[in-house]
Amino acid sequence: MKPLRSRNPVAVGVIGTTVLVALLAGVVLLPKLSVFSSNRSYSADFAQAAGLASGDDVRVAGIPEGTVTGVHLDHAVIRVDFDLPKSVHLGEATSASIEVATLLGTKYVEITPAGSGTLPSSTPIPISRTQVPFDLADVTNGLSATVGGLDIPTL
Fold this sequence. Notes:
The chain is an alpha/beta fold and 155 residues long. Helix content is 22%, strand content 30%. The chain has a 7-stranded mixed beta sheet with strand order 1-4-3-2-6-5-7, with no helix packed on it.
C-alpha cells in the first residue's frame, strides 16, 4: 500500500470530500426514514379546521406527545395529519378533538385512545369520532333561537 503523500492529491481530495458528504447526508437523512423514525403518522377527519395549523401540539391525556404535520381539505372534510411516538398505543375506537390552548386562540389536537386492537396508521379517525371547539352552524342557530325568544316590547 502506497503512503498517502505519494498519491495524486486531487484524487485524494475528491474521494475524501465524497466520503465526508456521504457521511453528513447519512447523519441528516437516516433519522427521517420511517424505518429509523420513532414516530408513527396518523390522520383524523374533522368538520372544520377551527384555526389549527401545522406545528401545533398533539396531546394524549393532556401531555404534548406529537405534532400536527398538515391540515388540508379532503373532499367534504378537513384532514389533519399528525405524528405520535410509536410508544403511544391507539386502539380502534380512538377519538380526537380540537381544543383551545390559550385565550389568544392557540389550538391543539387532543387524542383519546380507546378500544382494543390497533388503529391502522393508514386509516384516518372518522369524523364521527372527532369534535371541534365550536360549530358555526350551531352558533348561528342558537343565536336565532335566542333572538327569536326575546320579548321586544318588554325590553
